[in-house]
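Input:
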Amino acid sequence: QVQLVESGGGVVQPGRSLRLSCAASGFTFSSYGMHWVRQAPGKGLEWVAGIWHDGRDTYHADSVKGRFTISRDNSRNTLYLQMNSLRAEDTAVYHCAKDSRYCTNDVCPFDYWGQGTLVTVSS
Amino acid sequence: DIQMTQSPSSLSASVGDRVTISCRASQSISTLLAWYQQKPGKAPKLLIYKASSLESGVPSRFSGSGSGTEFTLTISSLQPDDFATYYCQHYNAYTWTFGQGTKVEIK
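Output:
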């Protein structure tokens, strides 16, 4: 069965960096686009970044553009999110999510999500 | 940027009730809309894609409708397992935008 397991979260000071990982199993990782979606405490879902199945193209929300970078290693079945210049407003649970096959114009909703890893930005 | 607005933000209902949640897009998005269910401390679950297509394994009491700017998620007969928060999501042009969520609580 499909499993997505995030790791790398923790408490970090403002301005510092953190790298999140998402280990994927149960499907052909290299065939699907992947995403990071975050959820601030008690708040709704916010898409953060997405990457094509082969890593050729990436997309980032305006709120993180220039600070966060999504990447993947298909040989390791792992998705990453490099987060630099962290701010208090980046505090959230970060979920990785997999593209479904229900795509239109190469854009798809997400059919599997991980449980998430908590990032807390605080001095 | 397209904004997605859900209403209501929360509702109270009883088991067996018919529940309707609305999602409005700030401009036409055709049928490029999904609905998700999220329970506390859990990952979201895909319910509906392309506005009205039911994801495999999702009970038939869930249905979606709409196109353009107005969309609806309907639960025909609310069950105890359905108390959760529901999100709509627009997906297109390499952007994915969620509504703010609707929390369905027990009356």
